[in-house]
């Protein structure tokens, strides 16, 4: 698979602007108000016979107003009697402009200012076009990367969510993950790979078998005119995912081994099919309103042997249905019963119904419940107010998901200062030492440890930490001021360094790598 192009998906957040209503007149050195373009003055006077119209000739009206064709100005000039109607239009425009000015003054219309800088777009994903030898075509993917901020682990690695119908689903799903992982800390940060189907043969890609029915209640239609004539290419599409796309993402991004496949509608159908037929490809599967009615429920009818094979042990499946009703709902209910009958398979699953939602709105609630199911520990009330409890929590999550999850620097730093404010100096030192062990290239980690030493009365150690922070971030004026203040009070830096005894006592040091999840 070859990467042929990279661009970005962005949310345009440019501010609304008032219409541009001021311009310098082309007929006058003074300023004018452009409110429209009057007709050219095609004068009938004999002296102009056979000549081109004079678009910039102007006239003086007895009222004293002056106008030029194309712009309106307040200057004198020769009269063009045919342009009297332009004055009437000018007066009407002046009234209109006075109304706009009133709205601007009232704050109802935002006034544009020359000094206002252009607004920057909010980038939510980067898009890449990759070539698939298996499919014999270029495919477009959109990749959301965890953004830096409070609670962020800038080093990775990150688990990966592969999202079918990415052009529709990615803004919703990436927004939820970004918010929950960074603000509420309700789930780990993840890379989201949206796999576009718009512009491709979606029916071919997302259906594992061929069917002559386009929906649960439609008649069978065969032949060249059948709307489902290209269906049944899901197995080939799964080969593309497993053999080409997943290795491509692993090469280009800092990925963890934990992988999730998610899809809605026909995407949900392929997701359940992948769980049954290719359980080793992903660790968890999220199927929102899956079209299990497809091909007269052939997936449900053939699921028994796969559920009893023992190959699903340790896998996770989230299923949901909205208010579709009819055969759509009945198939999901039967499959839920089949899963319960094979409880010994070792598959962890959850089935949710949202009867008040539609097929289109259901994913909003369902994806959120899926994250709660896949990452339950993150949503539990936490009392990890000591370094030991924090270490234990992330060690348990690392064991559960199969990769080392580093305590995020921002979370640990916040807990350290909370301990410092409550007088628990030993815990504060433990938290800040944890960050130094996990993020040895972070100036903030050394600066924070210096603050803890100041409060503990160890000024010489604090100075050594501040010096280390300045070596990593020479432009930090706040750290420099704190170091100068200690020097002025007669302090000297500890010759043995910032923290020769405690560094590394909490957590396992992680290699420092550049920011973001992109491999360099």
Automatic annotation (TrEMBL):
<feature type="repeat" description="TPR">
    <location>
        <begin position="443"/>
        <end position="476"/>
    </location>
</feature>
<dbReference type="InterPro" id="IPR052558">
    <property type="entry name" value="Siderophore_Hydrolase_D"/>
</dbReference>
<keyword id="KW-0378">Hydrolase</keyword>
<feature type="region of interest" description="Disordered">
    <location>
        <begin position="204"/>
        <end position="231"/>
    </location>
</feature>
<dbReference type="InterPro" id="IPR029058">
    <property type="entry name" value="AB_hydrolase_fold"/>
</dbReference>
<dbReference type="Pfam" id="PF00756">
    <property type="entry name" value="Esterase"/>
</dbReference>
<feature type="compositionally biased region" description="Basic and acidic residues">
    <location>
        <begin position="204"/>
        <end position="216"/>
    </location>
</feature>
<dbReference type="InterPro" id="IPR000801">
    <property type="entry name" value="Esterase-like"/>
</dbReference>
<comment type="similarity">
    <text>Belongs to the esterase D family.</text>
</comment>
<feature type="compositionally biased region" description="Polar residues">
    <location>
        <begin position="27"/>
        <end position="37"/>
    </location>
</feature>
<feature type="region of interest" description="Disordered">
    <location>
        <begin position="17"/>
        <end position="57"/>
    </location>
</feature>
<keyword id="KW-0802">TPR repeat</keyword>
<dbReference type="InterPro" id="IPR011990">
    <property type="entry name" value="TPR-like_helical_dom_sf"/>
</dbReference>
<feature type="compositionally biased region" description="Basic residues">
    <location>
        <begin position="17"/>
        <end position="26"/>
    </location>
</feature>
<dbReference type="InterPro" id="IPR019734">
    <property type="entry name" value="TPR_rpt"/>
</dbReference>
<protein>
    <submittedName>
        <fullName>Tetratricopeptide repeat protein</fullName>
    </submittedName>
</protein>
<dbReference type="GO" id="GO:0016788">
    <property type="term" value="F:hydrolase activity, acting on ester bonds"/>
</dbReference>
<feature type="region of interest" description="Disordered">
    <location>
        <begin position="487"/>
        <end position="520"/>
    </location>
</feature>
